[in-house]
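Sequence only, no structure available. Ideas?
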Amino acid sequence: MKRNCIQCDEPLYGRSDQRFCSTSCRSHYHNHKREGENKTFYATHKHLITNYKMLSKILEQHPHIASINQLSRFGFVASKITEIELEGPNTRPVFYLYDIGFRYLDQKHIEVFKCPIHRSWHSNRQLRPDWFDSLQKVPR
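Reply:
I predicted one. C-alpha coordinates follow.
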Protein backbone atom coordinates (compact mmCIF):
# COMPACT_ATOMS: atom_id res chain seq x y z
CA MET A 1 0.00 0.00 0.00
CA LYS A 2 1.43 3.36 -1.05
CA ARG A 3 1.20 6.03 1.64
CA ASN A 4 1.45 9.79 1.10
CA CYS A 5 2.08 12.82 3.33
CA ILE A 6 -1.27 14.31 4.37
CA GLN A 7 0.11 17.83 3.89
CA CYS A 8 2.04 17.78 0.59
CA ASP A 9 1.08 14.37 -0.85
CA GLU A 10 4.72 13.22 -1.18
CA PRO A 11 5.34 9.45 -0.80
CA LEU A 12 6.21 8.30 2.72
CA TYR A 13 9.05 5.91 3.55
CA GLY A 14 9.81 4.39 6.94
CA ARG A 15 7.46 3.74 9.81
CA SER A 16 4.03 2.34 9.02
CA ASP A 17 2.25 4.92 11.22
CA GLN A 18 4.04 7.91 9.67
CA ARG A 19 1.66 10.65 8.46
CA PHE A 20 4.06 13.44 7.37
CA CYS A 21 7.18 13.44 5.22
CA SER A 22 8.97 16.10 7.28
CA THR A 23 8.82 18.22 10.39
CA SER A 24 7.92 21.29 8.36
CA CYS A 25 4.91 19.50 6.80
CA ARG A 26 3.76 18.39 10.26
CA SER A 27 4.10 21.91 11.66
CA HIS A 28 2.40 23.50 8.68
CA TYR A 29 -0.50 21.04 8.87
CA HIS A 30 -1.15 21.61 12.58
CA ASN A 31 -0.68 25.39 12.38
CA HIS A 32 -3.12 25.59 9.48
CA LYS A 33 -5.57 23.30 11.31
CA ARG A 34 -5.57 25.60 14.37
CA GLU A 35 -5.41 28.85 12.42
CA GLY A 36 -9.01 29.82 13.22
CA GLU A 37 -8.66 29.06 16.93
CA ASN A 38 -5.43 31.02 17.29
CA LYS A 39 -6.21 33.95 14.98
CA THR A 40 -6.77 36.45 17.80
CA PHE A 41 -3.70 35.24 19.68
CA TYR A 42 -1.41 35.55 16.65
CA ALA A 43 -2.80 38.97 15.69
CA THR A 44 -2.25 40.30 19.22
CA HIS A 45 1.19 38.71 19.43
CA LYS A 46 2.14 40.33 16.12
CA HIS A 47 1.13 43.76 17.47
CA LEU A 48 3.12 43.17 20.66
CA ILE A 49 6.22 42.25 18.65
CA THR A 50 5.82 45.28 16.37
CA ASN A 51 5.33 47.61 19.34
CA TYR A 52 8.31 46.11 21.17
CA LYS A 53 10.62 46.54 18.17
CA MET A 54 9.58 50.17 17.74
CA LEU A 55 10.04 51.02 21.41
CA SER A 56 13.43 49.28 21.38
CA LYS A 57 14.52 51.49 18.47
CA ILE A 58 13.47 54.59 20.40
CA LEU A 59 15.65 53.45 23.32
CA GLU A 60 18.66 53.48 20.98
CA GLN A 61 18.28 57.21 20.33
CA HIS A 62 18.59 60.15 22.72
CA PRO A 63 16.33 61.55 24.04
CA HIS A 64 13.96 58.60 24.41
CA ILE A 65 10.96 60.56 23.13
CA ALA A 66 8.76 59.76 20.15
CA SER A 67 5.79 61.22 18.32
CA ILE A 68 2.57 59.20 18.59
CA ASN A 69 1.59 60.11 15.01
CA GLN A 70 4.89 58.88 13.62
CA LEU A 71 4.71 55.62 15.58
CA SER A 72 1.12 55.05 14.47
CA ARG A 73 2.11 55.41 10.83
CA PHE A 74 4.57 52.54 11.30
CA GLY A 75 1.99 50.27 12.94
CA PHE A 76 2.28 51.08 16.67
CA VAL A 77 -0.96 50.23 18.51
CA ALA A 78 -1.00 51.82 21.97
CA SER A 79 -3.69 49.47 23.28
CA LYS A 80 -1.44 46.42 22.72
CA ILE A 81 0.50 46.39 25.98
CA THR A 82 1.26 43.83 28.67
CA GLU A 83 0.67 45.95 31.78
CA ILE A 84 -0.51 49.33 33.04
CA GLU A 85 0.54 51.01 36.27
CA LEU A 86 -1.00 53.90 38.16
CA GLU A 87 1.65 55.60 40.25
CA GLY A 88 -0.66 57.88 42.17
CA PRO A 89 -4.04 59.59 42.05
CA ASN A 90 -2.83 62.69 40.18
CA THR A 91 -0.20 61.09 37.96
CA ARG A 92 -0.39 59.74 34.46
CA PRO A 93 -0.52 56.00 33.91
CA VAL A 94 2.63 54.15 32.87
CA PHE A 95 2.22 51.54 30.15
CA TYR A 96 4.50 48.51 29.87
CA LEU A 97 5.39 46.17 27.08
CA TYR A 98 7.38 43.42 28.78
CA ASP A 99 10.55 45.17 30.00
CA ILE A 100 9.98 48.51 28.24
CA GLY A 101 7.74 51.22 29.66
CA PHE A 102 6.31 54.41 28.25
CA ARG A 103 4.25 57.35 29.47
CA TYR A 104 2.55 60.19 27.67
CA LEU A 105 4.32 63.53 27.96
CA ASP A 106 1.48 65.33 26.19
CA GLN A 107 -1.13 64.43 23.58
CA LYS A 108 1.47 63.96 20.83
CA HIS A 109 4.58 62.52 22.51
CA ILE A 110 5.63 59.61 24.68
CA GLU A 111 8.73 59.03 26.77
CA VAL A 112 10.17 55.50 26.56
CA PHE A 113 12.33 53.86 29.23
CA LYS A 114 13.81 50.47 30.03
CA CYS A 115 12.45 48.84 33.21
CA PRO A 116 14.87 47.63 35.86
CA ILE A 117 15.44 43.89 35.85
CA HIS A 118 14.43 43.48 39.48
CA ARG A 119 10.96 44.92 38.84
CA SER A 120 8.37 42.37 39.91
CA TRP A 121 4.79 41.84 38.86
CA HIS A 122 3.56 41.93 42.46
CA SER A 123 4.65 45.42 43.42
CA ASN A 124 2.32 48.04 44.85
CA ARG A 125 0.49 48.84 41.61
CA GLN A 126 -3.22 49.26 41.19
CA LEU A 127 -4.88 47.86 38.11
CA ARG A 128 -8.11 49.58 37.18
CA PRO A 129 -10.93 47.63 35.55
CA ASP A 130 -11.40 50.51 33.10
CA TRP A 131 -7.73 50.48 32.01
CA PHE A 132 -8.65 50.15 28.36
CA ASP A 133 -10.62 53.43 28.52
CA SER A 134 -7.45 55.22 29.59
CA LEU A 135 -5.73 53.99 26.43
CA GLN A 136 -8.40 55.60 24.28
CA LYS A 137 -8.03 58.98 26.01
CA VAL A 138 -4.62 60.58 25.84
CA PRO A 139 -3.72 62.06 29.26
CA ARG A 140 -3.64 65.84 29.39
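The beta strands are 65-67, 83-85, 94-97, 100-104, 109-114.
Hope that gets you unstuck.
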